[in-house]
Amino acid sequence: MKLGALPVAELTTRLARGLDVDTGPFVVRVETEIPALAEELRLLYGDFPVDAGGGLADFHVSVRRPAGPLGLRRWWRQQAMAYLDDARPFEPLPIIMAVPMLEWSINWCAATRANQYVMIHAAVLERDGRALVLPGVTGAGKSTLCASLSLRDWRLLSDEFALIRPADGLVDPWPRPISLKNASIGVIRRWAPDARLSMPVPNTNKGTVAHVRPPSLSVARAGEPAMPAWVVFPTFARDAAPHLSPLPRARAFFRLAACSFNYESLGLRGFTTLSRMIDGCDAYEFNYSSLDDARSLLGALPLP
Amino acid sequence: MISGLLLEALRAPASMGALAPAEWDVLLRQGRHVGMLGRLGALAAAAGVLPVVPSRARTRLEAALEDVEQQHRLVRWEVIRLRRALAGTGVPIVLLKGAAYLHAGLAAARGREFSDVDLLVPRASLGEVESALLREGWEMEKLSVHDERYYREWSHELPPLAHPKRHVPLDVHHNILPPTGRLRPDPRLLLEAAVPVADDSLRVLRPADMVLHSACHLVQSGEHHKSLRDLGDVDALLRQFGASPGFDDELAARAAALGVERPLFYALRFVAKLLGTPVPEVTGRAVQRAAPPPPVRAAMDRLFVAAVEPGPPRDPARRTQLARAALTIRYHWLRMPPALLAYHLARKIGGRRRRG
Is residue B356 a part of any domain in this protein? Predict the structure, then answer.
């Protein structure tokens, strides 16, 4: 059964007990009593299957309202706080930030625990069975590019995580909501007026944040991995002419490793996996200022 | 039923082959909480049940085993650097705990999660070792004046060291228990009896002393959610050494010579009770002499079992929290005489208030 098929009342009840959402590579048990979060989850995760419960979850995320001194926080300036089993990596935030907090919590779980993969901080898209990996430093425009491409010609594999399988080098999809910041929110709304976005949340430590519901087809194909073909390091520069320049493989390797969450902690396995991946890919640096240019240039990349 | 999952898995690893997904959900979370996911993976692999566990659980166990392998690789590399750094001093390197099990190739190292290196050096060489390490780039954790004094005067180790490029925590001990405590084993006995591993540049405690050290650590450690891992160490060591001729007599004799029969009494009692470890006969009888009076024994039984019990993954049970708090008080009580303890706590509480 899909999450979106649950009536709001039932979803709320099940979230209070803990609902297992099958996000593809990971089953996430989400537990919350914050009503607004249930509605946003329905919007963002509507296409994902939910498990009957009582099974094995990979991550356990509970977003609750801390009571605060004398229980005052229950009524006044409510907060959201994430409990990830015995870890509490984030300070409590105003309750309006519950959605970003949930997303950051799920990311935190993967980044710290999913060492069965070599994980790279990157957006990943797929076309004709081959994957385009867009590693990103903050502000490079990775998520905007990812949202724009996945809403047109490409299948969304992931906005934040390239999950590379050491055994065969394939990338497992994790098509969760795409996180947009500040001006990108308006850009994507204009780019795809029918895309569904969560309520923008102002004043987070990343500015205003909104999430894009992943395309239904990408979610339906969450079980289909893809082999990487292109590694493209994007840089957004206002008014810049679009420019793709080939990057030597050795340089691309080190830049990729620097974007990895766990390259160092995986030792030899990290090295073997990444070097094999880069051997099978073409790497580029990419400067762009318009999404139309990006769409046509990246769409015309030759196979390596 | 659910709460006994972790102990049952440690006691009878083959039983993991029959667990349902919901039970794995709990077991994996408990295992991570106590730092034993890698151990569970190693036990499941050794029992041959890894292929039949649900695939999501298998993935997690295999990932944990890979993590452990990498930790062990880092520790081995750190020990190589240590050998180089201390070569000029002539001070023998005696490894303790995880690093010792690893370098001695013991079963206790299999799947054991650890990321630090513990050394034992003669107290007289402490200054020389410290300056050699600092010269080779290790750095000492920045501490408050009180904490620095705490380590240097009242504890059995230097303030924590680490090399800034490798970040592997290094604890340099001059004894296995603090000099201010009730029990004061003579570290010279441990150092004299240490045995070489690989070549002669590395040593580990001899088997009986290794068991005694891990027993002391088990019942006098301040980290109670990690007690189960310590218990696992005692269990693995006893199972491995227990069969060697002479080990039993030696263990009893060394416990008496080092004056640590009480910790050994508790350790044997708890491994037998919780993990079903066979207790060596002679030693088992000998430590009865060091048994605490029955009311104390009963209290410790309840506290320890409650503190070790991992319980539900989030929010440990109230009982577990209380037991851990009580054991923390006991831990401080055993470490220092009352006046010193009062002084230390006053400084700690005062310091916290000033900062807050």
Answer: no
- pTM of the full predicted structure? 0.88
Q: What is the pLDDT of residues A171-185, one digit of tens each?
A: 999 999 999 999 999
Cα gap A156→A177, rounded to integer Å: 10
| C-alpha distances out from residue B76 to A94, A276, B103, B164, B178, Å | 46, 27, 8, 17, 27
Strand partners, B202: B93, B197
Contact at CB, A60 and B313, closer than 8 angstroms: yes
Kindly determine whether residue A54 and residue B313, on different chains, have CB atoms separated by under 8 Å: no
| B290 within a domain of the structure (yes/no) | yes
Contacts of B28 in chain A (CB under 8 A): 56
Under 8 Å between Cβ of A27 and A222: no
CA distance A281 to A302: 11
d(CA A163, CA A157): 9
Q: Which of A56, A119, A271 to mutate to test the interface with B (most CBs of B within 10 A)?
A: A56
Residue A134 belongs to what H/E stretch? strand A130-135
Strand-strand pairing, A201-204 and A207-212: antiparallel
Taking the domains of chain A in order of start, what are their residue ranges? Answer: 3-113, 118-299
Determine the Cα–Cα distance for residues B282 and B248; give it in Å rounded to an integer: 6
Per the structure, the count of domains in chain B is 1
A213-223 pLDDT, tens digit each: 999 999 999 99
3-class state of residue A189 by DSSP: helix
How far apart (Å, rounded) are the C-alpha atoms in residues A196 and B92? 67
What is the predicted ipTM?
0.90
CATH number, residue B142: 3.30.460.40
